[in-house]
From TrEMBL:
Belongs to the binding-protein-dependent transport system permease family. CDD domains: TM_PBP2. It is a multi-pass membrane protein. The chain crosses the membrane at residues 50-71, 115-141, 153-172, 178-198, 241-266, 286-312. InterPro entries: BP-dependent_transpt_permease, MetI-like, MetI-like_sf, OppC_N. It holds the Pfam family OppC_N. Residues 1-33 are annotated as: Disordered. Keywords: Cell membrane, Membrane, Transmembrane, Transmembrane helix, Transport. PANTHER family: ABC TRANSPORTER PERMEASE PROTEIN (PTHR43386:SF6), OLIGOPEPTIDE TRANSPORT SYSTEM PERMEASE PROTEIN APPC (PTHR43386). It is found in: Cell membrane. Residues 111-309 form the ABC transmembrane type-1 domain. This is ABC transporter permease.
Length: 321
């Protein structure tokens, strides 16, 4: 009597286990593909309040820079000396500057030049530094030593001093340089003085990637250096450079303001936050609103890019998982 009962009990347990297994299979997501590094990072970023806040601020700033006419209909260069340094009011939310120009309009239009300089400087720095660093990390040898020693020369130069030398040399014989010329010079100066950092970051990532099995397998299968660098190493070396470029973009916007404040960067008639801060330095005590609003936008922009870079760094860092 006991043996048949045990057999029936085991059969019931086995049937229940099969049913549970079938239920798990039915509930499993169909055709779910495994996520890679970037997929996991994006999933993690969407859950970070820091990333969401920074992304919203940056999107708003980019819209302001691209379409300033949506936010103000006032000409930022229009002067009315009867309104010189008037405080904020219902007619002019940010008040007027020392020439009677609407500070709100100038702040809105100033976003375009400041952000454009930051974006172009970051693009130049990353393209130059990442390309040289990737080649140096892959080939090594004398080329790596030459590039490393050459980059140390630029890293030893103080940024402000180097920018002063470069910009004053370019404009030594030019009384009033054009707008495009000044913007190009500022971008070039920032890129030339900042590329070693991007180079070192990419070089370290390339040296690490070169030792991986997928690179060795590609080389064993006969892939040339160009294919190995572009198809195998570059996609796996972008993460640290992306983090650096996001944080550096905010720093370069601040660098433009610094150079403009010193009188060697952008200058009138260009409208930028740095130019506005430079024009307000003589009236800070009597009319602090001339400095407060452009400086506030500058601080918020730099902080937003720094927060975005921190969030991306944490999402791409496997130690944070």
């Amino acid at each position: 009597m006991t043996e048949p009962a045990d057999s029936g009990h085991r059969a019931a347990v086995a049937s229940a286990a099969e049913e549970a297994t079938a239920q798990v299979v039915r509930d499993a997501p169909k055709n779910e593909k495994p996520r890679g590094l970037w997929g996991d990072a994006w999933r993690d970023l969407r859950r970070r309040p820091l990333f969401i806040v920074a992304a919203v601020i940056i999107v708003v700033l980019l819209v302001i820079a691209a379409f300033p006419g949506l936010f103000t209909s006032v000409d930022p260069t229009f002067q009315d000396l009867s309104k010189t340094r008037q405080p904020p009011s219902a007619h002019a939310w940010f008040g007027y500057d020392n020439l009677g120009r609407d500070i709100f309009a100038r702040t809105i239009y100033g976003a375009r030049a400041s952000i454009a300089v930051g974006l172009l400087s970051t693009l130049l720095t990353v393209l130059l530094g990442a390309t040289v660093g990737l080649l140096a990390g892959y080939f090594g040898g004398w080329f790596d030593n030459l590039v490393s020693r050459f980059s140390e020369i630029f890293m030893g130069l103080p940024f402000v001093l180097g920018a002063i030398v470069i910009l004053t040399t370019f404009n030594a014989n030019v009384a009033t340089p054009g707008v495009v010329r000044v913007v190009a010079q500022v971008v070039l100066s920032i890129g030339v003085l900042s590329w070693p950092i991007a180079m070192r970051i990419m070089r370290s990532a390339a040296i690490s990637a070169k030792q991986q099995d997928y690179v060795k397998a590609a080389r064993a299968l006969g892939a040339g250096p160009a294919r190995i660098i572009l198809r195998h190493m570059l996609p796996n070396c972008l993460a640290p450079v992306l983090v650096y470029s996001t944080i550096a973009l905010g720093g370069f916007i601040g660098a433009e303001a610094t150079l403009s404040f010193l009188g060697i960067g952008l200058r009138d008639p260009v409208v930028s936050w740095g130019v506005m801060i430079a024009e307000s330095r003589s009236y800070i005590q009597g009319a602090p609103h001339l400095l407060l609003f452009p400086a506030g936008f500058l601080v918020i922009t730099v902080l937003a890019f720094v927060m975005l870079g921190d969030a991306i760094r944490d999402a791409l860092d496997p130690k944070q998982k």
